[in-house]
């Protein structure tokens, strides 16, 4: 969809303003600030922050190395558990994970673990400090489909274990949602691309512009490789099934344009964002920062059922974003092809549905109109439909070793996340665990500790 052709084109913003509006939100720590913050850490034994990190980074260890100015050692401590530490430092919901578990949080401020990790990873990037592969080549080769966080983590971890990993990516640029989907305020695309280049230095081959199911097929990959890993993520935003839907912009495309070609965007003056998850908050933030006078998130339940994190809800309110709860879109109103409003129905909440949340029940005859010149939808992503694989709630079903219903074919990341909120760090952990499982399948007696 051509974003420039959507909206009534009333809002213009200069290139410089765009750069500033969407620049990374938190500045890097200065060396002095990092040293002071690292010195506050108690270096806890059996540290709760490490337990709370899905990739179990040895947090006190990497922080202690910052305190003793051993930046090389700090980066290595992070890489040991998480190859995508630069991305995770920026995008992880640290309030819910490591920082939320920090013992200092009870009475003081928790340690700024995310910002310290970013400090170490920025240093590693500037000084080209990359993990070193010491394993001998095993002669085994693995095809990884999709160069998002799950695929890159898996390919990098396989390379560390001496296997030849080739990643096939359908887009022009690797990085998955880190490159195209996570708002630039949290992670600029360049950070994700630089991290991808680091993965290549481990010996991973990344082939972009190649789509599995169109340019390469399973039968061929099964012949050419010893295993196949599917890390294809999820699809585009599902349809709402309402009249005039063709005028609604896909929120993922909206975010992608803001990261890759913000000057092409034509942001409305009065923008409605349908949805209340983190993607919806990101879309609303972009609209607001790029000059929309009024941005309203439209959600059919209440603030108690929103799927975005509480800190994101607070952030959105601080950005001046408004909320319209208990409202279900029923029709887009168009005049001469241009969006002029969204008709909604008032909703009452009923008994819990399959998601466990109260089911929205539209009230007959309660239609009302919200004026708008641009509507964006951010209501989740379509589930993967691949190879007739067994599924679980629509996601690819895997066993404890990440193997799908086809022997030798594994799946990781968002495409298997049937429970809980999907996140980058969980995709990275899947990649690491799957690499280990595949390695053990090839060499049953070697444990992860022996190959590291
Ligand atoms: C808007 C948005 C914001 C988010 N913000 C955050 C955040 O702040 N923090 C956080 O932790 N998580 C966030 N997430 C979730 C996080 O981005 C995902 O959990 C993570 O990217 C999953 O990684 P993945 O590798 O499984 O999938 P993806 O990142 O989706 O990568 C899948 C890759 O596979 C490729 N692919 C798909 N099909 C094929 C095919 N047939 N052939 C070849 N290649 C293919 C895709 O092009 C893509 O590059 C966000 C998600 C969205 C949508
Ligand atoms: S819990 Fe807090 S104080 Fe303890 S090691 Fe982790 S970051 Fe340091």
Description:
This protein is α/β, with parallel strands linked by helices and about 450 residues long. The protein has 3 domains: about 5-20 and about 240-375, FAD/NAD(P)-binding domain; about 40-125, Orthogonal Bundle (Fumarate Reductase Iron-sulfur Protein, Chain B, domain 2); about 140-235 and about 385-450, 3-Layer(bba) Sandwich (FAD/NAD(P)-binding domain), CATH 3.50.50.60. The protein has 17 helices and 16 strands. The protein has helices at about 15-20, 30-40, 50, 60-65, 70-80, 85-90, 100, 115-125, 150-160, 175-180, 190-200, 220-225, 250-260, 280-290, 310-320, 425-440, 450, and strands at about 140-145, 165-170, 205-210, 225-230, 250, 270-275, 295-300, 320-325, 325-335, 340-350, 360, 370, 375, 390, 395, 410. The chain has a 5-stranded parallel beta sheet, with helices on both faces. It has a 5-stranded parallel beta sheet with strand order 5-13-6-7-8. α14 links the parallel β6 (about 270-275) and β7 (about 295-300). Iron/sulfur cluster (SF4) binds near residues 43, 60 and 102.
Can you identify the CATH superfamily of the largest domain? Answer: FAD/NAD(P)-binding domain
* Largest sheet report: 5 strands, parallel
Architecture (CATH level 2) name of the largest domain: 3-Layer(bba) Sandwich
Please name the CATH topology of the largest domain: FAD/NAD(P)-binding domain
The structure class reads: alpha/beta
Tally of contiguous helical segments: 17
Bound molecules: flavin-adenine dinucleotide, iron/sulfur cluster
Radius of gyration equals 23 Å
